Amino acid sequence: MQCTRAAIVKYQVHTSPLLVETPDVPEETRVILTVEAQIARRLLTVEAGVARWPDAVAAPLLEATSIRVLTTERTIRPDGTLWQEWRARVHEREDIVRQWGSVVTQLASTIPRKKLAALAASNLSEDQRRLLRFGQQVEAILVLPTAADGVDRCREVVGQLAPWVDAAAMEETAERFYRVNARVDEDGAAMMGELQEAHKALSPTVEAEFLDAATRGYCLPEERYAFLDDTLFVFDGQYGADEMRMLMVEYLGDLRRRMEQTAVALDWKRDLDDAERPGDIPERVRALVWRRDRSRCVVCQETTDLEFDHIIPRSLGGASTVKNVQVLCRRCNERKRAQVARMATWRVDRRSGNTLSLFAHVEHSSGRESGRGA
Fold it and tell me: Could you tell me if residue 88 is inside a domain?
């Protein structure tokens, strides 16, 4: 076999952060996801210096705590219709800000300076007046509202400038800005929520897709690695993906057969106390016997109407162990029970091999009696 199980692994998906902040909601954003195999238990017992693989292959497995398996890129998007409407409102808001700024600049040159200074004194703190130039003070008292109380304040300031400005038009512009700005914030927050949910869903989605691929065998031929379920395999030669999958299946099949044989052997040596107690055949014994006898009658090879049978009956001291239990079809089991009834006082050595040898003596005696009767 040209591959060896190298480690038991657990998979973990790392996702790049969502680098998006309001108010800049993108039409789409790309996310990088990396699948890593975290080494939970190493199965290699060799050291890098004496490994039968090249050091470039063996050393990472002996030293690394994880191996990068897959890097993929995904794109997430908010709702397309909502994003288009949101974008149109952003442009509308920007237009209002430009128009308002143009109007405020003209006011500084058309309204008496004393009037603007009085407004600044009643609407700005002393520190603000000291730090801001006159033009900046005018912009501060005529700032566009972003909250409900800001609309009332803006309406009050504009009302005091009514002799020099179109107060109704300015109030309407300020109210329109407040509505548009509020809708931009609401829609932006909704889309950010969608992006964050989609970002959270990426990791389990990619992990599920990878685990599905791992059940069939996820192969990295260039690195000589392959992953089958939770096991990392390392190959000591260059193979294609299909060859890797075939070798892994063969390896695990051979390993499974050896484990079953070991389990049966250990069961034969197990203490018989539990097996000799009255009751049904233990489920563990049933499972081992069923696999050993290949789900068919050991006498006639029938595969239907099967039953578990004690080779040495319980009434004769037989135990419920793997060695003393076999699979028989109903017809062969009834034939055996009929033979047992004819030897009520006979006891069989518990080391007898199988049903046929067990009842050879009975069948032989029956033949001699028939001969004498003839």
Answer: yes
Asked if residue 40 is part of any domain, the answer here is no
Q: Which residues contact 288 (CB under 8 A, 6 or more apart)?
A: 260, 263, 264, 267, 322
> Do 311 and 339 meet the contact criterion of CB atoms below 8 Å apart?
no
Stretch (H or E) spanning 227: strand 225-228
- pTM comes to 0.59
Q: Give me the residue label for tokens 């501060």.
A: 140
Residue 267 in domain: no
Domain residues for 284? 277-373
CA nearest to 230, candidates 4, 3, 8, 5: 8
Which pLDDT tens digit goes with each residue over 188-224? Answer: 989 998 999 999 999 999 999 999 999 999 999 988 8
Number of structural domains in the chain: 2
Amino acid occupying residue 188: G
- Residue after which a domain boundary falls, among 167, 188, 209: 188
Sign (positive or negative) of CA dihedral 369, 370, 371, 373: positive
pLDDT digits (tens, 9 = 90+) for 71-85: 999 999 999 999 999
> How many angstroms separate the CA atoms of 60 and 48, rounded?
9
Do residues 89 and 179 touch, judged by C-beta distance below 8 A?
Answer: no
Contacts of residue 41, defined as CB under 8 A and 6 or more positions apart, other chains included, come to: 7, 8
The reply to whether 141 falls in a domain is: yes
CB distance 255 to 233 below 8 Å: no
pLDDT at 271: 47
Domain boundary among 164, 188, 212: 188
Contact of 324 with 318, CB cutoff 8 Å: yes
The confidence score (pLDDT) of residue 214 equals 94
